[in-house]
């Protein structure tokens, strides 16, 4: 009886086990799935992110010439301005003496001819019906005072052709150029463009510091304010005197052409593969220079030193903003091109000789 009971229980357990196994085989285990609309509603962080475009740092601008540009730090370039000013005296070397002589000689020559050059430029403007007045339309004006000095934030656009040429040297023009390079560099992750922007700011402000110091030292009258032939020079005017009548003391040297030269040089040095930059830039500088003669803001002799300052500080900013990548020597394949001997008529060698009282030269051939 006990055997029958245990057999019955074992058979019942076996039937239950078979039933569970068959049901498990008939109904596979459900796995959680997400509908497409539910997946679309998930936050972006839950999906795989596309890899960011790497920053471009090395640029080959000519065969064998590659420059490396680091990502510029935020406003770090401002701290480079004192360094650039300190490095500027490094130009005073023996090999640069001809350049300094040229700057001085051209300034003196133009100073002697300042009056006829000025009148000739203004007569040409009148012949061409080119309005010499400096007319602008103000877009906005925010009065700002720093102590007793007025430093207004103003944006105005030229209102005639001569003023348009004059606007080429305006600070807003060069700020727009630098900002455009910076925006492109940030969007495209292009270190060369970003470094060009910071180099522009560095070169322009460094140039401006020295130009302003020279203006406040020399105190030369602008042509439209002149009371003497070629303008009066009032060396070291007081701060209040200078600020009270700036145009009576700020002609020498030109700041507009200095800034324009710095901008053209920085861009051309960083993008030498674009050979149109210098011709176009120098042409625009020519229009700027003429406009300042036509409206009586500058004398021609104000130009050489200002242009030289802009060029010098631009070269310093570019030099400090990039490094040359050393080219790896090509691996030798073990094969060398055969040396072709020169033809006999190119093997002649001329050498001097001295024999007793006779001195001369000999021409010999090695066949």
Task: Give the helices and strands, then pairings.
Blueprint (H helix, E strand, L loop, with lengths): L1 H25 L9 H5 L17 E5 L2 E4 L11 H8 L9 H16 L1 H14 L8 E7 L2 E2 L2 E2 L2 E6 L2 H6 L4 H18 L2 H28 L20 H6 L10 H16 L6 H18 L8 H18 L2 E2 L23 E8 L2 E8 L2
Antiparallel strand pairs: 1-2, 2-7, 3-6, 4-5, 8-9
Description:
49% of the residues lie in helices and 12% in strands. It is mainly α. It has one domain. A hairpin with a 2-residue loop joins strand 8 and strand 9. The longest helix is centred in the middle third of the chain and has 28 residues, at 191-218. The chain is globular and about 75 Å long. The chain starts with a helix and ends with a strand.
Major pleated sheet: 3 strands, antiparallel
Tell me, rounded to a whole number, the average pLDDT: 82
Instruction: Return the structural class.
Output: mainly alpha
Number of strands: 9
Low-confidence stretches: 1-17, 19-40
Using the alpha-carbon principal axes, give the shape: globular
Keywords:
367 residues; mainly alpha; 3-stranded antiparallel β-sheet; 9 strands
Short synopsis of the structure:
This protein has twelve helices and nine strands.
């Amino acid at each position: 009886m006990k055997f029958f009971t245990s057999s019955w229980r074992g058979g019942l357990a076996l039937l239950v086990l078979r039933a569970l196994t068959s049901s498990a085989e008939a109904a596979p285990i459900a796995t959680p799935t997400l509908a497409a609309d539910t997946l679309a509603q998930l936050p972006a962080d839950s999906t795989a992110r596309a890899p960011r475009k790497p920053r471009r740092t090395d640029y080959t601008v000519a065969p064998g010439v590659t420059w490396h540009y680091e990502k510029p730090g935020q406003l770090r370039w401002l701290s480079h301005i004192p360094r650039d000013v300190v490095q500027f005296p490094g130009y005073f070397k023996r090999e640069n003496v001809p350049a300094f002589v040229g700057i001085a000689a051209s300034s003196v020559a133009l100073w002697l001819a300042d009056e006829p050059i000025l009148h000739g430029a203004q007569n040409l403007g009148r012949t061409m019906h080119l309005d010499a007045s400096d007319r602008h339309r103000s877009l906005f004006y925010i009065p700002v005072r720093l102590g007793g000095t007025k430093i207004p934030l103003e944006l105005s656009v030229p209102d005639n052709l001569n003023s348009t040429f004059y606007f080429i040297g305006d600070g807003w023009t060069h700020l727009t150029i630098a900002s455009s390079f910076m925006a492109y560099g940030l969007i495209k992750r292009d270190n060369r463009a970003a470094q060009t922007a910071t180099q522009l700011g560095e070169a322009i402000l460094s140039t401006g510091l020295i130009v302003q110091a020279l203006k406040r030292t020399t105190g030369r009258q602008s042509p439209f304010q002149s009371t003497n032939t070629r303008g009066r020079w009032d060396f070291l005017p007081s701060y209040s005197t200078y600020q009270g009548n700036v145009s009576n003391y700020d002609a020498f040297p030109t700041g507009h052409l200095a800034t324009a030269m710095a901008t053209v040089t920085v861009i051309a040095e960083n993008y030498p593969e674009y050979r149109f930059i210098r011709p176009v830039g120098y042409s625009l500088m020519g229009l700027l220079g003429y406009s300042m003669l036509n409206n009586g803001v500058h004398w021609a002799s104000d130009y050489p030193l200002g242009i030289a300052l802009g060029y010098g500080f631009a070269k310093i900013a570019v030099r400090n903003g990039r490094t040359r990548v050393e080219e790896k020597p090509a691996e030798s394949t073990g094969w060398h091109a055969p040396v072709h001997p020169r033809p006999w008529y190119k093997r002649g060698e001329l050498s001097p000789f001295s024999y007793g009282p006779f001195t001369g030269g000999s021409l010999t051939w090695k066949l």
